[in-house]
Amino acid sequence: MAPHNALRNAYISHVRHTLRSMKQQIHFVTGKGGVGKSVVAAALALKFSRSGKKVLLVELGDQSFYEDFFTLSKVGFSPIQLRPNLALALWSGESCLREYARYLIKIESLTRLFFDNAVMRAFISVAPGLSELAILGKITSGLRNHGPPLPYDCIVIDTFATGHFKALLEAPKGMSQAVQFGPMGEQSRQIDRCIRDKQASHYHIVTLPEELPIKEAAELQADIKAEFNIDAELILNKILTVPVSGQVVKEIALDKKDNLNEFAIYLQYQIQRQIEMKETAQKITTDFKCIPLIFETDPWKLIEEMAGKI
Ligand SMILES: Nc1ncnc2c1ncn2[C@@H]1O[C@H](COP(=O)(O)OP(=O)(O)OP(=O)(O)O)[C@@H](O)[C@H]1O
Ligand SMILES: [Mg+2]
Q1: CATH class of segment(s) 24-239+287-309
Q2: Domain boundaries defined on the chain
Q3: Does ligand 1 come within 6 angstroms of the Cβ of 36?
Q4: Is pLDDT of 20 > 50?
Q5: Which of 14, 234, 248, 292 is 20 to 30 Å from the Cα of 258, by its Cα?
C-alpha cells in the first residue's frame, strides 16, 4: 500500500473511532399530525450522515411511511441501507419487545411461544405504557449498553404526533413508579435518565406557521422544558417564499386590472401572517429554524433540498 494511502486510512479510522467513542446522539422529531415530521426527520438524518456520522433513521409504529415515499421494497425491524452512512428501520412496541425477549431468552422457539399467544399479545397491546417503554428501551439501548448492539453515532426518530409523543416520554417514569423494584424498575429508571440527558437526547418540534400548530408546539416545548429542563428546537415548516420583492407584490395587489391581482392579495396576507407567526415562535424560543415550502415532487430531491436548509 502506498504510504499516503496508509496515512489516509489511519486518519479515517481515527476519525471514525473518535466519532464512535462519543456519546450516541438521539434526535426525537415530533409535532402535530401532517406538519412534515417524517420528511424533516429524513432530512435531519441525511444531514447528519453527510457530516460523517453513521445514522439510523427510525420510524415508529406498524406501518412504514418511507416505504411508499422512497418506493422501497420492504422496511422492517432490521435496518436497511438507504444511502452511505444512512440506514432506516421501522420499530413497533411489539417488535422491540420481541427482540429484547429473544436477547434475554436466547431460544427462538421459546420467544415464539411467549409472543405468538393470543393472551400475551392482548396483554402487550393493553398494558399501559409497556409498548412505549419497549420502544424507548430499544432507542436508548446503545446509550445504556444494554441489549443487542446498536452501532450508530446518531439515531433520528420520526416519532408520534404530539399527544402520543407525550405519553411516550412519560412511560419510563410511570413504569418506574409503578414497579419500583427489580430489573423492570431499574431499566425504566435508566431509560428515563437517557431521555433527560441533554448531551444525548435532542428534541425537534415541527410546526406549520399557523396559529393552532404553533400553539400546540409551544405547549409541548413548555412541557419538555418543565419536565426535562431541555430546550426543544422549534422548526417552522412550509414557509412560503416569494421570489419577487414585496414592492412588486404590493403593486400587483393594488392594480385591479392585473390578472394576478387576487393572487398578490393572497400572497400579501400569507406573508404578513408568516411574519406574525415567526414573531410568535421567537417568543417561545430563540432556538427555531425555518424550512421553506419546497416545490419538488421527487422525494430524494425534496429531502436533499430540505437537508441543505436545516
Ligand atoms: N417543506 C416542505 N415543502 C414541500 N412539501 C413538504 C414540506 N414539508 C412537508 N411536505 C410534504 O407534506 C406532506 C406531509 O409531510 P409528512 O408526511 O412528513 O408529515 P407528518 O407530520 O409526518 O404527517 P403524519 O402526521 O401523517 O405522520 C408530505 O407530502 C410531504 O412531502
Ligand atoms: Mg409522518
Answers
A1: alpha beta
A2: 24-239+287-309
A3: yes
A4: no
A5: 292
